[in-house]
Design brief:
Blueprint lengths: L1 E5 L9 E4 L10 E10 L1 H8 L12 E2 L3 E9 L11 E7 L5 E9 L6 H5 L2 H14 L6 E5 L4 H12 L3 E6 L4 H6 L3 E4 L4 H8 L4 E4 L6 H8 L5 E3 L11 E2 L6 H13 L7 E6 L3 H10 L5 E5 L1
Parallel strand pairs: 8-9, 8-11, 9-10, 11-12, 12-13, 14-15
Antiparallel strand pairs: 1-2, 1-4, 3-5, 3-7, 3-15, 5-6, 6-7
Helix pairs in contact: 3-4, 3-8
């Protein structure tokens, strides 16, 4: 089978499309014929060797955590799913023609494989950081870097829970944020004052790693009310860095419920082929994403 792999840490150029042996489902796992794989910042952070404590790997290694596809192999002890089922979930080395998933759910009706591939890690992360930052219904959450996949999910999940959301993003994404129910404003000079004019901030999330931790602490008044998933230097300022996933099966179950109720939709901004994996990483690292990027197999 074809698989994207890298034999050394480095830039996008270390990614290679290779012929590899097919993986097989072990106990508690399923294998899928991959139709699409989600492109996440964690993919290129792992490729660069940034977060090995949270994601230890041996080289050469595959790429990708999220995928959607058709089950073709069911591991020992797995119940409730069979060959031919359309599922989305999280596993390893998902930029490939076949991948093994350790957590999955049936795809909601009306969702394409490309759309479904963009949800697993994104929704788990969104649910986790909302929980960790402790924001409650009736309060206001500031989201820095709100237009990407995690931001899109945070805005919609928070609004569904009765939380007011202020989102920051580039000029081109202001209407997108407003369409998701957020009070929107732009980055750049004077952004802190623009946020203050929109309302009091009870908690804040840094999703872009754009060097705004000090300002988020200033706006909330307490570093314990700020969480970052993108700035590895956040702990130096007393802010928690959240990088270890919680329960992916629980997150997938909640995602299915939200999608089925019409409360969560994350658009696919751009799709890439396996050959274009390096380009997908370059674009992901550049930021300014509206929704999700996926690799189509």
């Amino acid at each position: 089978m074809k698989k994207v792999s890298f034999a050394e840490f480095g830039g996008p150029d270390v990614l290679q499309l290779i012929d590899a042996e097919e993986p097989h489902a072990g106990p508690g796992q399923v294998r899928i014929a991959v139709r699409a794989a989600g492109v996440n910042p964690v993919d290129w952070r792992v490729r660069e060797g940034q977060i090995l404590k949270a994601h230890p790997i041996e080289l050469p290694a595959g790429v990708g955590l999220d995928a959607a596809g058709v089950v073709d192999e069911v591991g020992e002890g797995v119940e409730g799913v069979e060959a031919g089922d359309r599922v989305f979930g999280e596993g390893s080395s998902t930029y490939a023609e076949f991948a093994v998933l350790s957590a999955w759910a049936r795809m909601p009706e009306g969702l394409t494989f490309e759309e479904a591939a963009g949800y697993p890690s994104v929704v788990e992360t969104a649910l986790r950081v909302i929980r960790e930052v402790g924001v409650q219904p009736g309060q206001t959450l500031l989201v820095s870097g709100a237009s990407g996949g995690v931001g899109s999910a945070v805005l919609q999940i928070a609004r569904d829970r009765g939380i007011t959301v202020i989102g920051t993003a580039g000029v081109a994404n202001q209407d997108y944020l407003r369409g998701l129910g957020a009070l929107a404003t732009t980055y750049g000079e004077g952004w802190v004052e623009r946020v203050r004019q929109l309302g009091h901030v009870d908690a804040a999330l840094d999703l872009a790693g754009s060097g705004v931790i000090r300002e988020l602490v200033e706006l909330t008044g307490d570093p314990q009310k700020v969480i970052s998933i993108a700035d590895l230097g956040a702990p130096e300022l007393g802010v928690r860095f959240s990088g270890v996933a919680g329960s992916v099966p629980d997150a997938l179950a909640e995602a299915v419920g939200l999608i089925s109720r019409g409360k969560l939709h994350i658009p696919v901004e751009k799709s890439y082929t396996l050959v274009e994996a390096a380009a997908a990483h370059i674009d992901s690292q550049a930021g300014h994403t509206r929704g999700r990027r996926v690799v189509v197999v």
